[in-house]
């Protein structure tokens, strides 16, 4: 098991119903994609947030990463929709 | 070279930021500024709510500015992005690029904006003028295409 801080933004945050949480992760959660699959198993609010998984962006320790990125050593993992600033 | 990056709730003053960037320097030949404002969408929009990822927003904009400075030989760059509730007519973002000649300054400002729109962690939500629930603004394919041209 490892402990990680998760943060959510925009409609991902709204659908899950919270902006951050700390979770214990099973050892078989190795990559961002594994983590998304794990979160989707936690309840329908996560299923709704990550329904269109391919559009979801991820960051580890505040740096953009792809879904194949290993999460080992991550202190903070963020999930959010495509960005719309500027 | 200096890059000034700020993520803030309050408004900014374009002229004051240009003056600060140029103060005490005699080597700058070209300054390009871009400011992005909130539109009212023909009266339908009451305001935008700008959400951001504190920390990462500053880090990501700084990284983009450093890349622009290196790539276009900018002498200075400033990028300021607001968050919170922003009404039509108000400023959202300011980018300033300074270089010895105009083309580098134009390109630098353009590059910073194209990457800022697709990589800096900000999200816009609409507040509708009729009081109905507003939507999150969707990312545009055109913005991805603009980034990929670089």
From TrEMBL, chain A:
It comes from Sinorhizobium kostiense. This is Molybdopterin synthase sulfur carrier subunit. It comes from the Bacteria. InterPro entries: Beta-grasp_dom_sf, Mopterin_synth/thiamin_S_b, ThiS/MoaD-like. SUPFAM superfamilies: MoaD/ThiS. It holds the Pfam family ThiS.
UniProtKB/TrEMBL annotation, chain B:
Pfam families: MoaE. Keywords: Molybdenum cofactor biosynthesis, Transferase. Belongs to the MoaE family. The lineage of its organism: Bacteria, Pseudomonadati, Pseudomonadota, Alphaproteobacteria, Hyphomicrobiales. Pathway: Cofactor biosynthesis; molybdopterin biosynthesis. Its EC number is 2.8.1.12. It comes from Sinorhizobium kostiense. It is an enzyme of class 2 (transferase). This is Molybdopterin synthase catalytic subunit. It catalyses: 2 [molybdopterin-synthase sulfur-carrier protein]-C-terminal-Gly-aminoethanethioate + cyclic pyranopterin phosphate + H2O = molybdopterin + 2 [molybdopterin-synthase sulfur-carrier protein]-C-terminal Gly-Gly + 2 H(+). GO terms for molecular function: molybdopterin synthase activity. PANTHER family: MOLYBDOPTERIN SYNTHASE RELATED (PTHR23404). The keyword Chloroplast does not apply. It comes from the Bacteria. Heterotetramer of 2 MoaD subunits and 2 MoaE subunits. Also stable as homodimer. The enzyme changes between these two forms during catalysis. Converts molybdopterin precursor Z into molybdopterin. This requires the incorporation of two sulfur atoms into precursor Z to generate a dithiolene group. The sulfur is provided by MoaD. CDD domains: MoaE (cd00756).
């Amino acid at each position: 098991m490892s402990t990680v801080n998760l943060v959510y933004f925009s409609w991902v945050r709204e659908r899950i119903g919270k902006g951050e949480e700390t979770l214990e992760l099973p050892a078989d959660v190795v990559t961002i994609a594994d983590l998304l699959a794990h979160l989707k198993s936690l309840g329908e609010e996560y299923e709704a947030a990550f329904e269109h998984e391919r559009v979801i962006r991820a960051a580890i320790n505040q740096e953009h990463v792809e879904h194949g990125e290993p999460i080992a050593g991550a202190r903070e993992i963020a999930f959010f929709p495509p960005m719309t600033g500027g | 070279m200096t890059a000034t990056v700020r993520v803030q709730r309050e408004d900014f003053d374009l002229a004051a930021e240009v003056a600060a960037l140029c103060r005490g320097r005699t080597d700058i030949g070209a300054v390009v500024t871009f400011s992005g404002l909130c539109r009212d969408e023909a009266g339908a929009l009451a305001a935008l709510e700008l959400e951001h990822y504190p920390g990462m927003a500053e880090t990501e904009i700084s990284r983009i500015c450093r890349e622009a400075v290196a790539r276009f030989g900018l002498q200075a760059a400033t990028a300021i992005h607001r968050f919170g509730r922003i009404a039509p007519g108000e400023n959202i973002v300011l980018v300033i690029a300074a270089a010895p000649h105009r083309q580098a300054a134009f390109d630098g400002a353009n590059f910073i904006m194209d990457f800022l729109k697709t990589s800096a962690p900000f999200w816009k939500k609409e507040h509708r003028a009729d009081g109905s629930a507003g939507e999150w603004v969707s990312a545009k394919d055109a913005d991805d295409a603009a980034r990929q041209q670089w």
